[in-house]
């Protein structure tokens, strides 16, 4: 509880981790606020069904609060966004102040603040993919402020968890994106860094994942614990193995 997990991918797609955490927390009985900036609801729902989770039912029960970023942004751009219960659009920064993500933060806080009848086992904020906010015009400082305030509310006050996916490319010239990614790495309790293989595509090994447990944040003088595995994505699960020990090699 109270942990911030960063999902980082480089030269590959780490979205399989988002689907894992979404289904994991829903099955665990947690209240989930999912800020989906990359795909549509139907996409996440079709993958979740393969993993044995029904997102439609979770929404109807109030367990899942789903913010479909693509649709909301289009509605806002074309003037079709309707204010719900007098509240402004979470993405109003697009047409107003790009350094002000207060409306998005207010949406997250309202979604996860427990009501008197709530009996969920915890609160979870899931964001896929945070760097899209930069593409929509938000400033790096505003994005980092947004995450900071979310951590105060979700991790500190509600004792919940935050899971955020970011895309990065070490050779990229996008300085704003790398600034946000590197800043989040310094503040994360756990980093799951998915990378494509340096040798290129392989049908039996889809990439490698570096698991970094930030022990140094606890100021105990210990170094971070780092584990490295390779993986293969299958239809309904993912197989992990030590480097060089895939079934194809053995």
TrEMBL record:
The keyword Disulfide bond does not apply. It is found in: Cytoplasm; Nucleus. It comes from the Eukaryota. It holds the Pfam family ELP6. Pathway: tRNA modification; 5-methoxycarbonylmethyl-2-thiouridine-tRNA biosynthesis. CDD domains: Elp6 (cd19495). One of its GO terms (cellular component) is cytoplasm. One of its GO terms (biological process) is tRNA wobble uridine modification. InterPro entries: ELP6, P-loop_NTPase. Keywords: Cytoplasm, Nucleus, tRNA processing. Belongs to the ELP6 family. This is Elongator complex protein 6. It comes from Bucco capensis (collared puffbird).
């Amino acid at each position: 509880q109270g942990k911030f997990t960063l999902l980082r991918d480089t030269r590959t797609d780490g979205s399989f981790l988002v689907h894992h955490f979404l289904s994991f927390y829903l099955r665990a009985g947690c209240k989930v606020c999912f800020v989906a900036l990359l795909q549509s609801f139907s996409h996440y729902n079709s993958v979740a069904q393969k993993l044995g989770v029904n997102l439609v039912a979770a929404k109807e029960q109030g367990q899942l609060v789903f913010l479909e970023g693509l649709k909301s942004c289009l509605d806002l751009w074309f003037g079709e966004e309707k204010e719900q219960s007098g509240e402004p659009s979470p993405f109003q920064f697009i047409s107003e102040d790009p350094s002000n993500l207060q409306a998005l933060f207010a949406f997250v806080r309202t979604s996860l603040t427990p009501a008197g009848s709530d009996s969920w086992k915890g609160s979870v904020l899931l964001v896929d993919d945070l760097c899209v906010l930069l593409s929509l015009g938000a400033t790096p400082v505003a994005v980092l402020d947004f995450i900071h305030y979310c951590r105060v509310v979700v991790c500190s006050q509600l004792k919940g968890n935050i899971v955020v996916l970011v895309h990065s490319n070490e050779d990229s010239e996008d300085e704003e994106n790398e600034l946000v990614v590197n800043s989040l790495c310094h503040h994360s309790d756990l980093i799951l860094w998915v990378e494509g293989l340096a040798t290129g595509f392989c049908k039996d090994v889809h990439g490698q994942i570096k698991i970094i447990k930030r022990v140094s944040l606890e100021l105990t003088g210990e170094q971070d614990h780092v584990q490295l595995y390779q993986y293969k994505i299958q239809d309904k699960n993912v197989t992990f193995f030590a480097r060089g020990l895939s079934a194809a090699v053995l």
